[in-house]
């Protein structure tokens, strides 16, 4: 134990403390860089409620497509079980906007994420962990099944506001809803002036043909978007025997809940899977009254899942 504490003190060069709005709990982070096989620096943040002390459980949180790794830090902190550390991983070139645009894509993110996780498990924890929870939201939830399938040390998987369909199929579903109900479903596609499935397919063709980093659509570069279009989580879920939890809002306009419904039907006979479509909530788990249910209803669902799986 003394050796682990000493390592933490020596290798971490930066530190910051996060407190919840209620001020009831706080988590202290140490930030460090590791270097991949191409000599590129990858940054991660390892946090604990017990500073300078490693716990036996680790919660790894993967954010959506945005560059900030701690956008929803308070939410992640509230999803932590007791005696559990929190690992946040930055995308490569997080602080360099031009380089970030050049390199940001799904394949790159998965490779870097796996590299950092394996580094932390081997070099920081020395493979001495009881439980490792991998959790992701949106893009992070999309890639989490592959990472869990390829890192056998992971013991639990949580996917938030992500489904089992490719992004191409998800957008086709969302456009069909817009066409069916243009008043309530139209804002997303009206913004990019897409009205028909033919127009949408043409846009996909352009992105696939020119996956460049200097053109954007829906706030993502073509390079990044092209890596998302055909990616599916289902092939990786097939091989997972660990407990898996999927949560999504029924009113999500960013990720259609049909993708989670599809997975629920596909894996209905698998006891290790739990799928929940939460009525009245959007992709951020905000209800129709504008109240955020992330730290209430969603937190309760996750805690019940912990109990069910004897965490």
Brief characterization of the structure:
The chain has helices at residues 2-11, 73-79, 97-103, 106-124, 139-150, 167-180, 182-185, 187-190, 197-209, 222-229, 234-237, 258-266, 294-308, and strands spanning 14-19, 26-35, 41-48, 57-62, 84-89, 131-137, 156-160, 216-217, 220-221, 244-249, 273-278. It is of the alpha/beta class. A 9-stranded mixed beta sheet has the order 1-2-3-5-4-6-7-10-11, sandwiched between helices. Strands 8-9 form a two-stranded antiparallel sheet.
What are the key terms here?
single chain, 311 residues, alpha/beta, Rossmann fold, 2 domains, 9-stranded mixed sheet, two-stranded antiparallel ribbon, 13 helices, 11 strands
Shape: globular
Biggest pleated-sheet summary: 9 strands, mixed
Based on DSSP secondary structure assignment, what is the total number of beta strands? 11
Order of helices and strands: HEEEEHEHHEHEHHHHEEHHEHEH
The percentage helix is 40-55%
The number of distinct helices, counting runs of at least 4 residues, comes to 13
Calculate the terminal CA-CA distance, rounded to whole Å: 23 Å
How many separate domains make up the residues?
Answer: 2
Classify the secondary structure makeup into a structural class: alpha/beta
Poorly predicted runs are 1-14, 19-23
- Reading side by side through the largest sheet, how are the strands ordered? 1-2-3-5-4-6-7-10-11
Question: What is the CATH class of the largest domain?
Answer: Alpha Beta
| CATH architecture descriptor of the largest domain | 3-Layer(aba) Sandwich
- How many whole angstroms does the radius of gyration measure? 20 Å
Instruction: Give the name of the CATH superfamily of the largest domain.
Output: Alpha/Beta hydrolase fold, catalytic domain
GO molecular function: carboxylic ester hydrolase activity
Protein name: Pimeloyl-ACP methyl ester carboxylesterase
């Amino acid at each position: 134990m003394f050796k682990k504490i000493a390592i933490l003190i020596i290798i971490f060069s930066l530190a910051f403390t996060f407190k919840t709005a209620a001020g009831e709990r706080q988590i202290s982070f140490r930030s460090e860089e590791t270097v991949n096989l191409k000599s590129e620096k990858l940054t991660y943040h390892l946090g604990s409620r017990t500073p300078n002390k490693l716990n036996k459980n680790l919660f790894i949180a993967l954010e959506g497509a945005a560059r900030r790794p701690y956008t929803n830090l308070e939410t992640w902190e509230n999803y932590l079980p007791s005696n559990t550390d929190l690992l946040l991983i930055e995308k490569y070139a997080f602080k360099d906007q031009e380089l970030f645009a050049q390199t940001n894509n799904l394949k790159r993110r998965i490779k870097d994420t796996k590299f950092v996780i394996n580094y932390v498990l081997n070099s920081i924890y020395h493979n001495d962990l009881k439980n490792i929870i991998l959790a992701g939201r949106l893009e992070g939830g999309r890639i989490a099944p592959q990472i869990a399938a390829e890192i056998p040390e992971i013991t639990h998987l949580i996917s938030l506001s992500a489904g089992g369909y490719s992004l191409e199929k998800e957008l086709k579903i969302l456009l069909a809803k817009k066409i069916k109900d243009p008043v309530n479903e139209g804002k997303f596609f009206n913004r990019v002036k897409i009205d028909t499935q033919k127009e949408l397919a043409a846009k996909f063709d352009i992105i696939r043909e020119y996956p460049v980093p200097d053109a954007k659509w829906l706030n993502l570069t073509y390079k990044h978007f092209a890596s998302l279009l055909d990616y599916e989580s289902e092939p990786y879920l097939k091989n997972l025997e660990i407990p898996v939890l999927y949560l999504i809002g029924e009113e999500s306009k960013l990720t259609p809940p049909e993708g989670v419904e599809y997975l629920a039907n596909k894996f209905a006979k698998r006891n290790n899977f739990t799928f929940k479509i939460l009525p009245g909530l959007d992709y951020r788990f905000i209800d129709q009254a504008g109240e955020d249910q992330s730290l209430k209803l969603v937190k309760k669902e996750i805690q019940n899942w912990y109990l069910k799986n004897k965490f």
